[in-house]
Amino acid sequence: MPSSRPTDDNTIDDTLEHFEAHGAPPLPASNESGWVEHEGARIWYASYGTGAPVILLHGGLGHSGNWGYQVPALLEAGHRAVVIDSRGHGRSTRDARPYQYELMASDVLAVMDRLSLARAAMVGWSDGACVAMVLGMVAPERVAGVFFFGCNMDPGGTKEFVATPVIDRCFNRHRQDYVRLSATPDDFHAFVAAVSEMMRTEPNYAARDLARIRVPVLIVQSEHDEFIKLEHAEYLARSIPGAQLRMLPGVSHFAPLQRPALFNRTMLAFTARVLA
Questions:
Q1: What is the pLDDT of residues 202-239, one digit of tens each?
Q2: Where is the AB hydrolase-1 domain (predicted)?
Q3: Does pTM surpass 0.90?
Q4: What is the dihedral of CA 23, 25, 30, 36, to 10 degrees?
Q5: How many domains does one find in the chain?
Q6: Which domain holds residue 250?
Q7: Nearest-angstrom CA–CA distance, 71 and 13
Q8: Is 5 a domain residue?
């Protein structure tokens, strides 16, 4: 059964029943929040605490509130946590252009400029992990390190999609949150189609592209990831200079929600190393 105390270190929500019903715990009060006008979109962000900055980049179809277990952990560790709703997700808007990971990476840089952040650690989950890795390629001077959880960097890294009750529960929560937060609450199906098209056609980075990455990278793969092949995670760790691979046992693509204490230990060890 899901824990009745969702912020407890003993939280286990492997089936995502709690997440479907209630979402992640609410984010704390922010020091600063707002929107950045960039490339035809209004990008929502929020910043919490002080200290060395960590930017959290959520997965496709989700929003920043999905980091409700991670922001308090980063604050307790003495970090500044920054969350960003990707364009078209959550409170952020988009224009008519197709979704592109490189465009979303440029949105992150615009938020960093607004917050006067010269450099930050990037913690990315699924689509957010790809955005973080793109930043490590194109703007290494702004990136202290990339925590890359549950994503591919070329089409060969994904498994054939199989619907499961866990995926369905996550999708249902995303639908509810989109209707609640979005400036276009009636457009959920068009939103899903557009994001899905990006996932189908991107990313397309070759081994030679990965070999040029010079920031610290941790590839994090869950034992039961529904979308990403283990051999792809191993390939990324081999192809990126100095990259390390960490396995998270007993969880799936939704580890930050299923067993946040396990995920947070790995995340905080990474941020302590790259921001020392």
A1: 999 999 999 999 999 999 999 999 999 999 999 999 99
A2: 54-265
A3: yes
A4: -20
A5: 1
A6: 17-274
A7: 18
A8: no
d(CA 178, CA 168): 15
Task: Look up residue 45 and give its two tokens.
Answer: 């962000």
Each residue of 22-79: pLDDT tens digit? 999 999 999 999 999 999 999 999 999 999 999 999 999 999 999 999 999 999 999 9
Residue 125 phi, psi (nearest 5): -125, 120
Secondary structure of 26-68 as H, E, C letters: CCCCCCEEEEEEECCEEEEEEEECCCCEEEEECCCCCCHHHHC
Residue 242 CA, distance from chain mean position: 22
Predicted local distance difference test score (pLDDT) of residue 2: 36
Q: What's 216-261 look like in SS3? A: CEEEEEECCCCCECHHHHHHHHHHCCCCEEEEECCCCCCHHHHCHH
Closest by CA position to 95, among listed 158, 41, 18: 41
> Would 49 be classed as within a structural domain?
yes
Residues 6+ apart with CB under 8 A from 46: 27, 30, 32, 33, 64, 82, 83
Neighbour order of strands in the sheet with 80-84: 32-38, 41-48, 80-84, 53-57, 120-125, 143-149, 217-222, 244-248
CB atoms within 10 A of CB 52: 18
- Are residues 142 and 106 in contact, defined by beta-carbon separation less than 8 angstroms? no
256 within a domain of the structure (yes/no):
yes
For the chain, the average pLDDT equals: 96
Residue 4 included in any domain: no
* Structure tokens given for 67: 């980091």
CATH for 220: 3.40.50.1820
